[in-house]
Amino acid sequence: MTRVLVINSGSSSLKLQILDTATETELAWALVERIGEPTGTLTVRRSDLAGSPAGERTTEAGFADHSAALGRVLESAAELGVHPIDLGVEAIGHRVVHGGPAFHAPVEVTPEVEADIEELELLAPLHNPANLRGIRVARELLPGLPHVAVFDTGFFHTLPAAAHTYAIDREVARKWDLRRYGFHGTSHEFVSRRTAEILGTPYDELDQIVLHLGNGASASAISGGRAVDTSMGLTPLEGLVMGTRPGDLDPGLIIHLIRDRGMSPEDVSTLLNRDSGLEGLSGARDFRELLGRVDHGDDDATLAYDVVIHRLRRYIGGYWAVLGEVGAITFTAGVGENVARLRADALATLTTWGVEIDPEANETGSGERIISTPDSRVAVLVVPTDEELAIARACDVVLGLGE
């Protein structure tokens, strides 16, 4: 059996999962939140061989940095009998948001790879520094295992030039590698492959649209297993409306705020990364809270929801035009998997295109399922994403494990 520890390191959080890739089961899971604050939370969970929870421990304490957080995770894991070494972990996979022009596929981490990831921090200042901290801490505390970096941008390396090229001066674009890179690629690839399996269609014969909708949100058009368009761009700011990010907007707005309204580049960065999207429009970045306010007649929340739906419809229709024919539309991630109302509203205008949602299937059930009617021209699905499993599988491929 191949066992892999997957680490997703955020700016103030650390999420870990030990997976058996042969059986696709979870052996252990851990989450540290509020790293760097006076009091944080550490939860470690042990699973049985079938992947069901078999023991859990939650602790409140201060975690000064990621090194302290991972050290405490390993201590608690050892006490529960799920330390990575005790479980026979053979590799450690790390999520890295931006791979830039250099990284098109998962790669084993070396000092040179670390240095290259560090150079990409300008393209993903909220994500890559945190991802790199996780890599460095894990390599320090678990030095005897190979480490693999898996990049969110990798799946979108196949975008055709017409889709990834920005219409700016070509020399400027070449000098600074300015192009559409796309993000959530690990999720889009996993979900699109699973969609083809559910439908019993060869992956290389299915044209589909995948909607990854969570606090971060992105859409993709995938033709025969190759990504041909995606909503996020050079950075994760572009595209759909998100929890705290605006998605598409006029670049002149940024120039106007800096040149004419006296905002600094740092002020604008904070505005666009932390104070926009649902948060900026309504003050509620959580979708459940947003819908609760909509149902109570809150005008700001209603407008925010309407903007989300309008943007989704624009992308779905646009990608349909890019693909020419669509065999499946799949919703995934926290909002996409759990908010039936959004799914129905996003597709409501496509009835004239032959898309028919089964209201009962949409409103009930859980896990992966088809929510369109048998007569629908396009299959509509809900497929939970599993980026951790995808990262673990990538470790198998890169390191030749499980052969």
Radius of gyration: 21 Å
- Spatial order of the strands forming the largest sheet: 5-4-3-2-1-6-8-7
Largest sheet: 8 strands, mixed
Strand content: 15-25%
Low-confidence residue ranges: none
Number of strands: 14
Global shape: globular
Account of the 3D structure:
By secondary structure, the chain is α/β, with parallel strands linked by helices. About 40% of the residues lie in helices and about 20% in strands. The strands form two sheets. Strands 5-4-3-2-1-6-8-7 form an eight-stranded mixed β-sheet, with helices on both faces. The protein has a six-stranded mixed β-sheet with strand order 11-10-9-12-14-13, sandwiched between helices. The longest helix has 25 residues, at about 300-325. It is globular, with a radius of gyration of 21 Å.
